[in-house]
Amino acid sequence: MSSFRQAQRQAHPTKTNTLFLGILCVLVLILLMQIWLLTAGLNESLNGNNAVKWPAFWASVALFFSGAALIRYLPGPLREPLRTAAKETFRDAPLAWRTLAISAVSLALAFAVWFMWSAIPLRLNKVGFDLSRQQLFWLTATPVLLGSLLRIPYGLIVSTFGSRRSYAAVTLALALPCLATGFAVRNPATPYGILLACAALTGIAGANFATSMGVVGLWFPRHLQGTALGINGLGNLGVTVAQFAIPLVIGFSLLGGGPSANAVGPPLHLENAAFFWIPFIVLCTALIWFGTKDFPTAPKSFASQMVAARRPHTWALAALYFLTFGCFVAMGASLPLIIHSIFSQAPGGAPNPLLYAPIAAAVATFMRPVGGWLADRAGAGYITSISLGAMALGGFSLSAFTDADEFFGFYTFILIICAAAGLGNGSIFKMIAHVLPKEAGAAIGIVSCFGALGGFFPPLLLGWAMDRRGSPALAYLGMAVFAAFCLALNAWLYHRRNSPTHC
Asked: What is the DSSP string of 170-237?
């Protein structure tokens, strides 16, 4: 322990509290100055005067790091001994790690099935359908909405019916939307209502996330759950797998049937976008059934688990995850359109959105296990504060890089935000197991539900800002303000040393 910390511990309580309040006031003043400075710079930029933008940006960066350095000297207002939790025993470690590996692969498959309707609508009119832009939008959005809402019951079934049986059942159920979608898109005469029903049914694939996380959380002790849940979160790579696989498989026949019509280019077998996943669904179901076991615990009723809905911490964690995971989903969905819209007139030619967008999503995905691992070692509240602080800074800074000749700065801060979001995704799930251990299954369902909903609303805000302002800067500024609010919430509940839920 440093001599400064020792002096703080020995200080008189009144002096300690006075120092705490003084430093806290300075931090609030720094935050207000930074918000004012970045807002002033943004207003000048929107009015066409860019002379103040760069000085304001670098001054805000200096203020941010000054505040971050000052946090180190915050004393504890109540000098209580640090509570250290005893490590739990890790029984059946080989089975737990095998369960984690099977779960991560199965979750990647579920995400691939969930996002197949992000690729199919782009080609429906090419094979003979006649759908409006609004109809195509709802075909893309419906799986996201229902996949979010279904995560609540999918999180409950693990503790009620057993981990192996629950996960095997929901994985095998992925064949239903694949079969329905495959047969529906083969015939251009299929009514729009049937297509919408198939897209809605695909939402069950997104809900698998809650079951998968609930299963993995049962098998690992608390001091390893951040690492395990972070590794399991690599299943998000299923989105990238679907983006690369679907364009390849629709070019040839899998079932020997005739190709769908295509007015431009070679014929398309659009049904392959759905049928392609069925053999892998059967394989993953078999791996779950024969390679894992039900966790030995007494079954819990739905009513006993839904106590989590009355816990304030469930909704606090849902707000944090709404930002971090919602940012990941929103960046993946809207980034190609934003790049195309803003930088189409960039000097030297427009950047390729299909090259840069998957990289940003991959950065967020690979940072998730890093966030969980760091949360196990440095504390989930501390790592989440770093994540939220970086997102706030990135959002404020990103709003200043929306001119056609500033793609490098724009994309740099996009990568910073995605990395910070991935870091927070891993650390927040560590907090669920610590704060709500008895209702973890239901809490995971509710928190992940709001996280997925967080990926639905930001693109609407971005579209509104583009239509009204001609720039997404206002939307990014709104994200930064919300990130600052979440940073304060996390600091008070989970990062503050004397908080009852410090983790």
From this structure: HHHTTHHHHHHHHHHHT-TT--HHHHHHHHHHTHHHHHHHHHHHHHHHHHS-GGGHHHHHHHHGGGGG
